[in-house]
Amino acid sequence: MKLKDIQNQPDFRNIDIDKVGVKDIRYPIVVLDKKNKFQHTIANINMYVDLPHHFKGTHMSRFIEILNEHRGEITVKKFPAILKKMRERFYARTAHLEVEFPYFIEKRAPVSGAKGLMEYVCRFSGSLGEKKDFVLEVRVPITTLCPCSREISERGAHNQRGVVKVSVRFEGFVWIEDIIKIVEASASSPVYSILKRPDEKFVTEHAYDNPRFVEDVVRDVSVKLARLKGVTYFSIEAENWESIHNHSAYAYLERQT
To answer: Domain containing 87 — which CATH number?
Structure first.
């Protein structure tokens, strides 16, 4: 029995749609790992294509079929092939793919050497149309200690956790670990998943010796990213969840290199 294909029926409103597709697909992926070669994780995936004005709808199941065809191969290097397949399968002018996932790095505490896994939220965003585009985004938790508070206080200084979000375009390849290293070196202190008492003393004193405003953080990260081989564009967003204010401190910059 032949079933009617409603999506392929014509639409007479004469309106193109920029993006149509599926969101929040939970799917296993493989990410390149600088230390261990590969890391298996679970991603949230969004997939879109443009829809010409003469089509009523798109075939949503085809997005899932394309994912299944690339099972175990959803990596940075495979992004262009997946986007190309999306354009071909949907007869589309443009295709978009967004993949957000937790990435884990084993991290040793600075004094005791106690091991713990740190989570970093990462995102791949790619598009293919007349031009192709790919952006790697990494969110890195940090600690900052206020330079002003340290300067004016007789005892101590307020500090807080924050997050730095770095987005980069690049030629060749850039390791997630290298971006994380740059951000953590630009903060008052890195954040750890496990700390013993000697580690806590070290981290507290290290932060005190390295006070940073959010302005300092984005500027220091900018200097280091500009030197990272292959990077052609970056944006840096830093937010501190202030411990003595009912607001966050924020700074942002972007540059072409």
So the answer is: 3.10.270.10
